Amino acid sequence: MLDNPRSPRVRSVAKLAKKSARADTGMFLLEGPQAASEVLSYRPELIVELYATPTALERYTDIAQTAVDAGVDVEFVTEEVLAVMSDTVTPQGFVGVVHQFPTSVKDIFASAPKLIAVLEEVRDPGNAGTIVRAADSAGADAVIFTGRSVDLYNPKVVRSTTGSIFHLPVAVGASLGDVVGRAREAGLQVLAADVKGEDLLVARRESLLAAPTAWVFGNEARGLDDGDLELVDRVITVPIYGYAESMNLATAASVCLYESAFAQRS
Fold it and tell me: What is one Gene Ontology biological process annotated in the Swiss-Prot or TrEMBL record (predicted)?
C-alpha cells in the first residue's frame, strides 16, 4: 500500500498534469475506471504504472480481472495518495502512468483512410477530447492535432475522450498545410467546418460527403483563418434553425463526422 502523499514517487505522478513533465518523460496521466478499463483492454503494453484504492478495485472487479489477464500489476494506494496524484477534484479510484503513443501523419495517410478529423488551433481540452470520442464513434480512421492545438495528453483531453484515445490512431504536431497536402495525395477531399461556409444540406444533396474526407475543425472562438480556408476544397457550415447564438465546436464536429459516416455507408 502506497500511503505517503509526500513521497517522491507520488509527486512524480502528480507532475504529469504539467505539459513540461509530460514532454520530459514521454508519459501521461490516466484517471478513472473507464480509462483504466480501455487501456487494459486495448493497449496494456503502454502502461507503466497503475494505481487503485482497495475500494475501487473491489467495486470494479471486471477491471481487476482484465489487469490479471493482461499481466498488469495494480498497486494499492490510499485515498489521500490518489487525491495528490489525480488532476481531478474528485478522483474515481484509479490513476495510471502511460507511455505517449502518437502516430505519424505519414502512417495515417499510408493506411488508405476514408474519414479523418483534423484539429487546427482547437484550444479547449474538453472540445478536443470530445472530438476524438466523436471520431471514434463515427468510425473515423484517425484524428490529427496540428501543432497549434491543445496537447493531446493534457489530462482533461484524455478524460474527455473516455478511452477513445486508445481506439484509433492520433497524430500530433503537424502543420495544417502538410496535412492538407498529404490528404490530397492520398485521394481525400478536404472540407472545413466553419460559419463562413455553405449549408451542410448542399453537401448532402450533392453527395459530396460519400467521398473519402478529411474534416478540418478550427478554433472555438475564431474558427479558421482566411488563409486556412484557402487551403481546403470546400467550406461547410452546420445550420442553426433555432435561436442559439452559436453551436459548440465538438457538437458541430460530431454532426459533420456522422454525416460523412452515414454517406459513406449508405
Answer: methylation
Helices (H), the chain: 8-14, 19-25, 33-42, 54-59, 61-70, 79-85, 105-110, 125-137, 155-161, 176-185, 200-205, 226-229, 249-265
**What angle in degrees, to the nearest 10, is found between the helix axes of 125-137 and 249-265?**
10
212, three cell numbers: 473519402
Cell of 181: 497536402
Which burial class, exposed, middle or buried, applies to 58 when counting CB atoms under 10 A from its CB (0-12, 13-18, 19+)? exposed
CA–CA distance, 146 with 225 (Å, rounded to integer): 14
The string of pLDDT tens digits covering residues 104-142 is: 999 999 999 999 999 999 999 999 999 999 999 999 999
What does the pLDDT look like over 158-205, one tens digit per residue?
999 999 999 999 999 999 999 999 999 999 999 999 999 999 999 999
